[in-house]
Amino acid sequence: METLLEKAIDGLNLDRSDWQLVTFGDVAIQQKQKVDRENTDLTRYVKGEHMYSEDLHLRKWGELKDEYLGPAFIRKFEEGDILYGSRRTYLRKVVIAPFEGITSNTTFVIKANEDKIDKRLLPFIMLSEGFSQHSIRNSKGSVNPYVNWKDLSGYEFLLPQMEQQDNIASLMCSMDELIQKEFHNKQELEIAPQVIYRNELFSDCEGVDEFFLNRTSKFEIRKLEELITEIQYGISESLSCEASDSIPILRMNNLQEGKLELSDLKYCRGENGELDNFILNKGDVLFNRTNSFELVGKVSLFNEDGVYSFASYLIRIKTDKTMLDPRFLNYYLNSAIGLAKVRKYRTPGVSQSNINAQNLKRIPIPLPDIEFQRKLMDRIELFQGSEGSNKLKIQLSIQLQKSIINQVF
Question: What are 285's strand-pairing partners?
Answer without folding.
Answer: 301, 317
